[in-house]
Amino acid sequence: MIGMGNSLALLALLAWPLVTVVLFRTLSAERALIWAVLGGYMVLPQLSAINLPGIPAFNKETIPNLAAYAACLFILGKRPGILPDSRLGRVLLLAFVLSPSVTVLSNLEPVQFGIERLGGLVVFNPEGLERVQLPGLRLYDSVSALVNQLLVMLPLFLARSLLRTEEAIREIHRALVIAALIYAAPMLFEARFSPQLHSWVYGFFQHSFAQAIRGDGFRPFVFMPHALWVAFFAFMCAMAAMTLLLLAPAGRRAGQVLALLLTLGLVVICRSWGPIGLTLAFLPMLVLLRPRRQLGIAALLAVVVIAFPLLRGSGLLPTAALVERIAEVNAERAQSLEYRFDNEDAVIAHVQERLLFGWGGWGRFVPHDPETGATHIVVDGHWIITIGHYGWLGYLALFGLLALPLLSLWWQARKPEAPPVPLAVSALALILAANLFDLLPNATIIPFTWLMVGALLGHAEEMARQIAETRRRNLARRHEGLVLGATTAERPPLVQPKGKRTLL
Question: Exposed/middle/buried for 251, CB within 10 Å: 0-12, 13-18, 19+?
Fold first, then answer.
């Protein structure tokens, strides 16, 4: 019944819906939703899944999503909306859900190896084959992929309805800080004694143990996919702690300072340069920049990430010069980066054959030796994995949805009638932008990512409604003054928002 793990792993997966019910009956709807998704990601087993025929696997991503959605329907009596308000959002959502099905329909034939063509004669040479073929995709896979895409999006739908307010977004920051306090002891233990908790609890280690060794110490894994995921989680917690410190009243900042120092320490013990660099780059933005500026930076990062495949494919990104520059500091890191770039270039060249819809699963998007079927290509970035699997259609749909709330918030905030941008909102936008940027070297997209997308998208839509209402009231007052023949001095005052103005 379970693909990997012991009986405790199966019990944990089966028990999480009951935990979700308890959360929704004892906590507010906002807190219950946050902890149903975040808690499942923190404690459920990695790679373990309940595999039933005809439907996607039930694992640590799909089970919390489904449980939270069911609790929202049957306990809260709320049916969250699915379609975004904007036309662009609806197009992106539709493309995201349907693109895997289109990929399946364009990859029904198998990829065979050991085939030699002599004019019109086709000869099969079985000698030296590592594999005979990669299977073609099935029509059944099309239905399964569509259902899986909907399950992935459930946190977005729920958060867009329940977490759209400023106070609800503050709850997200509070949850991240509390999560850091919960994870601090396990992370410190594994940083000292090596990652063992997942093996002790669930009976297996979730990754290659060689990845846990860094220098003369260890990187914590706890119950997450990889040490990089733990490190990025620590970065998010540090950003949340800084946000709450800036928002705290003067008399209550001592505890927030301690929380910030703790989360910064967790970032350091993870021994991952990427999250450390993100922390050094993004924390000062929270302190030095105003919320509107923070939204501008988040939107700019979103545009850069979406355009990144074009830069890589066209050769405009100076990869060779970047490797040489890093080699001057750390030869080992430079060699690893060069290996990554070479593998990505090979996949980009292979994907050119099916650029629009991609190659699908079963390892088909990775180039193989046509004679032996062997391959040594390894890629980590979610952008290249998405393009390889689903082509440009799938890439633009996925990354477009991730970037949509960042671009929408920036677009709404720049309007003269826009209300002030809360720091909690702009800070969460920076965290999401950092997550989006981290998808270039890694694949750190998790259910909590979609929770942030839904909360920020809902807030952007709420801002759009407030702006429209302000404009309607201003227009009504101007019209009232004209109809009644009132002079300028007699007209009711217009609602003028605060903030800077730009005269064109």
Answer: exposed
For the ranges 96-100, 109-113, 171-175, 455-459, the lowest mean pLDDT is seen at 109-113
Radius of gyration, alpha carbons of the chain: 25
Distance CA 431, CA 436 (A): 9
Q: Identify the bridge partners of residue 116 per DSSP, sorted by sequence position.
A: 123
- Of the candidates 478, 471, 456, 113, which has an alpha carbon nearest to the alpha carbon of residue 302? 456
* 231: helix, strand or coil: helix
Contact 460, 403 (CB under 8 A): no
Kindly report the number of other CB atoms within 10 A of residue 29's CB atom: 19
On the question of pLDDT at 361 being above 70, the answer is yes
pLDDT in tens, 83-98: 999 999 999 999 999 9
Q: What's the whole-model pTM score? A: 0.91
Residues 6+ apart with CB under 8 A from 225: 46, 206, 207
DSSP codes, 338-370: HHHHHHHHHHHHHHGGGTTT---TTTTTS---T
Beta strands 115-118; 213-214: pairing state? unpaired
CA-based nearest residue to 143, from 105, 107, 89, 110: 105
**Helix locations, 374-422, DSSP H:** 382-413
Rounded Cα distance between 189 and 196, Å, is 9
Give the per-residue pLDDT at 501: 57
Q: Is the pLDDT of residue 484 over 50?
A: no
User: How is residue 266 written in tokens?
Assistant: 């967790």
Q: Do 473 and 421 form a contact (C-beta atoms < 8 A)?
A: no
Distance CA 247, CA 170 (A): 10
CA distance 282 to 286: 7
Question: In b/e form, how buried is each residue of 217-242, taking b as 16+ CB within 10 angstroms?
Answer: ebbbbbbbbbbbbbbbbbbbbbbbbb
Average pLDDT, stretch 199-221?
92
Instruction: List alpha helices for 194-290, DSSP H.
Output: 197-202, 227-247, 253-269, 273-288
Residue type, 463: M
Q: Are residues 227 and 211 in contact, defined by beta-carbon separation less than 8 angstroms? A: yes
Tell me which residue has tokens 């030699």: 116
Average pLDDT, the chain: 89
